[in-house]
UniProtKB/TrEMBL annotation:
Superkingdom assignment: Bacteria
Ranges of residues in domain Major facilitator superfamily (MFS) profile: 13-386
Organism: Exiguobacterium antarcticum
Principal localisation: membrane
A Pfam family assignment: MFS_1
Name recorded for this polypeptide: MFS transporter
Organism phylogeny: Bacteria, Bacillati, Bacillota, Bacilli, Bacillales
Length: 388
């Protein structure tokens, strides 16, 4: 078993899981801008367009508490397969039902499926990876999703060639990884459960009381990602930036985060996840504090987005790695479930908060990020992790 754990990072299973996560990121990266553009072309009001986009995250939240029991009962392969099948069906259906209401339903299904496949994948990886390799392993996991999310929008222009082409392309990729997954032997999470933790509520309480601080990084990343994609373009437009400049800034954040995923994972394995997380959150807070004073300079913002991306792009994956250190194996399904909910809450609250700060004087906009990052860094600093 020990040898199996050590070889897992290089195994066929891990490579396939990275492929699944990449496809998930690619799907989200494609659908979010593509559907918004298509709805805009149809003359859909902006608030309905925004609501339609938010439905995906609602699907994620709805799915989260429903997945633990099936995962414990049926194992990883069936649960991940179910998530992939939902995503494939929804993606193929988008061009067949081009209406706002239908797309809301399909976006919900995509969110539900994405949460399902991520939940199964995360628990599988964290359950079998040794603690001293968790930072590196989860960084590769986060890198795979981030790379897919960054490449997804590049397929959106295919819709102007053939209206159904980007959807069918994504659907085929999803089906291919589903077929490959079905070739793997199935495994289940640890079923050694103390009697007092048989109920889901008791497991939630225990994780929240003993490892609540490990859920903060996931919230942070969801908050940042969604806010930068939703409210920052509005802020940038109101302050004289062109669309190309705005897109470049967001892309800079994503690309720089990809470049530092693996190095930060290795640093976390060496120096400790908690210390690394506090450091990157603090660096991010200082970077955005600087943006409060230099927001009118494109060059300054480009540098700030690059630095903050390098620091903060790994917060979710490092948070999951930190959580895995703090929990016994039988609580990892519950911990990963709560990490997914934490990320989704950040993804929903971020754009709402950002829309409120956009109407304030421009110098106040980036103070929202400073406030969130500094608060979470302080909470992590004050937390009392279990001793090793």
């Amino acid at each position: 078993m020990k040898k199996e754990r050590q070889l897992f990072v290089l195994s066929r299973r891990f490579a396939l899981i990275l492929s699944i996560v990449f496809i998930s990121g690619f799907t989200q990266g494609l659908l979010i801008p593509l559907l918004s553009i298509l709805l805009e072309r149809q003359g859909t009001p902006a608030y309905i367009n925004g609501l339609s986009a938010a439905v995906l995250y609602i699907g994620i939240i709805v799915a989260a508490p429903l997945m633990e029991k099936p995962l414990r009962r049926h194992g990883y392969v069936p649960v991940i397969s179910f998530g992939l099948a939902l995503v494939a069906i929804a993606v193929f259906a988008f061009p067949l039902m081009p209406s706002v209401l239908a797309w809301m339903v399909l976006r919900f299904i995509v969110g539900f499926g994405d949460q399902t496949l991520h939940y199964g994948s995360q628990v599988w990886v964290t359950s079998i990876t040794p603690n001293h390799k968790l930072g590196r392993t989860m960084s590769l996991y986060g890198m795979a999703f981030g790379l897919g999310f960054a490449l997804g929008p590049l397929a959106a222009p295919l819709v102007d060639w053939i209206s159904w082409l980007p959807f069918v392309l994504t659907g085929i990729l999803t089906v291919l990884v589903l077929i490959a997954l079905r070739q793997l032997p199935n495994e289940k999470p640890s079923d050694i459960m103390p009697e007092e933790l048989q109920s889901a509520a008791s497991r939630y309480r225990l994780v929240l009381s003993t490892a609540w601080f490990t859920l903060l990084p996931g919230f942070t990343y969801g908050f940042l990602e969604a806010t930068l994609n939703a409210s920052f373009p509005v802020f940038a437009t109101r302050n004289g930036y062109e669309l190309a400049q705005t897109s470049t800034l967001i892309t800079t954040f994503v690309v720089s985060s990809l470049l530092m995923q693996l190095p930060l994972g290795r640093l976390a394995d060496h120096f400790g996840k908690r210390r690394t997380l506090i450091s990157v959150l603090s660096i991010g807070a200082v970077a955005f504090l600087t943006a409060c004073f230099f927001f009118q300079s494109y060059g300054a913002l480009f540098t700030i987005f690059a630095i903050s991306g390098m620091a903060l792009g790994s917060t979710y994956s490092l948070g999951v790695a930190y959580m895995t250190e703090q929990l016994p194996n039988h609580l990892l399904p519950t911990g990963n479930l709560l990490a997914g909910i934490s990320f989704s809450l950040g993804s929903i609250l971020g754009p709402i908060s950002g829309s409120l700060f956009v109407v304030l004087p421009p110098s106040f906009y980036f103070s929202l990020f400073v406030l969130v990052l500094a608060t979470l860094a302080y909470l992590l600093f004050r937390s009392k992790p279990k001793s090793h």
